[in-house]
Structures are given as structure tokens and as C-alpha cells.
């Protein structure tokens, strides 16, 4: 099934031009492994970027051409095969495999375990959520990006399945809930801090590493 929830045009443009940090780039790269439409769009944006470089003043082009020719003199790196998938991590798409398994599953919130991933640009983790389990209602400082890897969840009347990218803004108070028919595994990024209102939030905000 093709994904139905896609990155915004701005996110794809930032990805194509290399302006995105490592953590959000991983979210986009994960979505692209599922979505041929967005892969095509990234190719188109990269071609537009290449055409713009050709229109730069000659001095800027000369400098970049010099460095390009310098690089062409170096031997080309061997085409490397994607890292093999580790047993038990078959849900991990190619862009995530170099990060796995760094650490074992750790507890996160009731009914949820996590693998924190070290990537620059926010709190990035893989979350495994039991069937039917909801995140406590929360908001965050900064954008929240979620890519489904296995199973599915619902949030704000929408359903998300493998390959779908869910984007929440920093004032969205929401309660994503795993579907009832099985566990949900997703790649989950908060670019700022998670904020859990109420006593549970007071308790957990002290213990959840940010
Ligand atoms: Zn897409």
C-alpha cells in the first residue's frame, strides 16, 4: 500500500538541499523508502538545485568545479550493499539499519518501550507501542515527526500505516493511539521537548531523558 501521509514540500526541499539535520533527515529517508511519489519529487528538487548552481556567477562555479575535479581524481568508493537486517529488526528500513541495534529496548511510558537513537536535531527514538495503547495526552516545544514502521496508529481522526509520516506542530495537544490489531513500531522525533500535562507529566518529565 502506498503511503497516504507525506512530508510537506518544505521538508522535501530541505531534505533535497541538505538543509535538514540528521534526525529529521532520517524520518524523510524512511518515508522515501516506501513512497515513489516523494522519491520522484526529491529527484526533481535536486535537479532544480543543480540547474541553479549552473547559473551561479563564474567565480563561485569555478571554486566548486575545482573541488569537484579534485574529488574526481580520488578513487570512487566501492558501491556498498545495504547493511543486512538484524534478526528481530525486520521492520527497519535501510536508512535505519546502521543505527540498529545500538542499545536494547528500554522502558519509556506504560505499555511502550524505546530505542533512543543518537542523531543530531532532536530526541529521536524508535517506539514500540502495545496494541490499543495511547500516548498520554501531550504537546511539545517544536515539531513532532512520526514515521510508522510496523502496525499503525490513529491520531486526530486520521489513521497512519507503514510508510506514513505524521507531522504535529508545537501546540497540538494530542493522543496518538496504536491500532487494536497489533503492536505499532514507529520512528519518533521531537525537535524540542515532550510536555505531558498533569501529575503523570510532572512525574515523567523528570525521568524521561530529553
Ligand atoms: Zn510521500
UniProtKB/TrEMBL annotation:
UniProt-listed InterPro entries: Anti-sigma_ChrR, Anti_sigma_zinc_sf, ChrR-like_cupin_dom, RmlC-like_jellyroll, RmlC_Cupin_sf
Superkingdom: Bacteria
Residue ranges occupied by any ChrR-like cupin domain in the UniProt entry: 102-186
Record's protein name: ChrR family anti-sigma-E factor
Taxonomic lineage from the root: Bacteria, Pseudomonadati, Pseudomonadota, Alphaproteobacteria, Rhodospirillales
